Task: inverse folding
């Protein structure tokens, strides 16, 4: 059963045009002209209850704008959207009880007060009784390993502890749909892993649906079986992570250990290695290549025939590297949507 339905959703922002100088300022004041900036255009998808879906795309692609439309923070220009049976921009109380939005670069906790004070305020806002508040507080703080931190001022918590406290505050009313915009932003590796494990546990325990955006691809690969890929405001892929690699980045990673290390002065030898693929990383006697799948056998054969090799392995490259390469090269077909 779909808990989120999006049909032909779009958002266009009118932006005022102002010419330089006094004449431009006066003209801007009396007869203002506008141009339209298309942030999101004609996207459609459905998300079922209990799904964890990754939402990917480069900066400025329209991810956060889409999340803001799904949570009702901004009104769509075109299309229709329903979340948990509600039209988000109406901001009905019953709708707000069913969703939450966590943004890694913004905080809702009061900086100079203990986290517990902010949690009590949230409980009052959502009409949570003291008995239920204590029960959920104990359960979530146990899951997040925060029990002994909630009486400390928020400013004295580590970044990871603050993020966990933000999650606790956002989930106190037990929402059905979680919108997570960069929830591990700036956290160290251990804190990132802890937040991922909590989200996985919360999803399994309560069947909540989660839409997750992140620049840390480890968040996506650890939590999401399905991803949505947005580019220049358009949804260009909806499917599995493996399918994403096959569709947009048909590469394999070839790692080679050479018999003799390379020095920066061996220009001719370095150029011979760089000729095997568009991407080559050299570190002493270790070399990495990204090779198109359809030329893999031929390329590996050439390397083995032309270089002194101790060891060679072939594997799938890190997904963040592949997606980054696709967007940097502009190798995205906007005319096909999976």
Result:
């Amino acid at each position: 059963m779909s808990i989120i339905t999006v049909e032909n959703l779009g958002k266009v922002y009118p932006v005022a045009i102002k010419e330089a100088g006094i004449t431009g300022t006066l003209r801007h004041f009396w007869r203002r002209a506008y141009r339209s900036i298309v942030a999101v255009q004609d996207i459609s998808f459905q998300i079922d209850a209990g799904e964890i879906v990754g939402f990917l795309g480069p900066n400025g692609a329209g991810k956060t704008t889409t999340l803001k439309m799904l949570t009702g923070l901004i009104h769509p220009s075109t299309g229709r959207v329903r979340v948990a049976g509600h039209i988000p921009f109406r901001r009905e109380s019953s709708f707000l009880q069913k969703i939450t939005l966590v943004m890694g670069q913004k905080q809702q906790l009061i900086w100079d007060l203990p986290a517990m004070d902010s949690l009590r305020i949230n409980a009052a806002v959502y009409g949570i009784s003291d008995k239920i508040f204590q029960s959920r507080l104990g359960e979530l703080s146990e899951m997040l390993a925060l029990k002994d931190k909630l009486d400390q001022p928020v400013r004295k918590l580590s970044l990871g502890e603050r993020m966990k406290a933000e999650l606790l505050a956002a989930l106190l009313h037990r929402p059905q749909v979680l919108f997570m915009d960069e929830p591990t932003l700036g956290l160290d590796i251990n804190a990132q892993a802890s937040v991922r494990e909590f989200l996985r546990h919360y999803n399994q325990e309560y069947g909540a649906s989660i839409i997750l955006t992140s620049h840390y691809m480890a968040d996506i690969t650890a939590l999401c079986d399905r991803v949505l890929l947005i580019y220049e405001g358009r949804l260009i892929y909806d499917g599995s992570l493996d399918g994403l690699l096959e569709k947009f980045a048909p590469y394999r990673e070839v790692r080679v250990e050479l018999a003799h290390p390379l020095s920066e002065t061996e220009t001719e030898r370095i150029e011979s290695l760089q000729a095997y693929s568009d991407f080559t990383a050299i570190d002493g006697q270790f070399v990495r290549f990204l090779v198109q799948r359809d030329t893999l056998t031929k390329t590996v054969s050439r390397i083995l025939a032309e270089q002194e090799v101790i060891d060679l392995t072939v594997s799938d490259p890190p997904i963040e590297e592949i997606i980054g390469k696709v967007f940097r090269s502009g190798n995205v077909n906007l005319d096909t949507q999976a």
